[in-house]
């Protein structure tokens, strides 16, 4: 008798959750959402998430088209995997619709209750924060003044990678070096201290928590590097274009005019396309 009550107590909530999900799924169909793969109760499409994520998303895009819907638990997400459609999403008419950020817990507790520039909702506060970032962090003067930091971190990363494969060929996992590079540059520019590499495990852990929700930079670099290495044609084409912009066998000068750097934009677009 006790076992029967236990089974009923477990099965009844699951049954109710299943019924509720069927109801919401029917409502979602009426909302004319993009196509979606079959989902499981409660977890939705979490079972489809396999590393590397961009490969998973690419396979789903090949099957369901450039726009499709996923559900991570109770959170519905629309995935757009076409560059041309993404460009349409950020035109003057649609930019404000997609300008607000998701209300994540990391933004509430580590982003000062949704007031940081990367998590604040669109409005007067966000516009003021953006002006400060542009003028104090990414202006030409600020970037030129911090060029030595970027050079030091890039040299340190290359030295470490070459040292790991000095004796023989070695398998290199690029995610960690790119993470350290991006975080060290950001933290040295903002606090004067490195996030990784100074044998400060406590500080490294704190920085990891702070930047846990902002891994797009080094993930994009890793993905771009993998794309270049896999295509010798693109690699040669990019090298030729860089030689045309900077000069064959010439390193980038300490302070490069913005007009020269803008010429490199087609290279970045080609990598990410």
UniProtKB/TrEMBL annotation:
Annotated membrane-spanning segments are: 6-24
Task: Reply yes or no: does the keyword Disulfide bond apply.
Answer: no
Cell location: Membrane
Membrane topology of the entry: Single-pass membrane protein
List, in alphabetical order, the Gene Ontology terms for molecular function in this entry: heme binding; iron ion binding; monooxygenase activity; oxidoreductase activity, acting on paired donors, with incorporation or reduction of molecular oxygen
Q: Which UniProt keywords apply?
A: Heme, Iron, Membrane, Metal-binding, Monooxygenase, Oxidoreductase, Transmembrane, Transmembrane helix
One GO term of the cellular component aspect?
membrane
Q: Which InterPro entries match?
A: Cyt_P450, Cyt_P450_sf, Plant_Cytochrome_P450_Monoox
Q: What Gene3D superfamilies is this protein classified in?
A: Cytochrome P450
Identify the domain of life: Eukaryota
Q: Which family does it belong to?
A: Belongs to the cytochrome P450 family.
PANTHER family given for it? CYTOCHROME P450 82C3-RELATED, CYTOCHROME P450, FAMILY 81, SUBFAMILY D, POLYPEPTIDE 5
Name of the protein: Cytochrome P450
Species whose genome carries this gene = Erythroxylum novogranatense
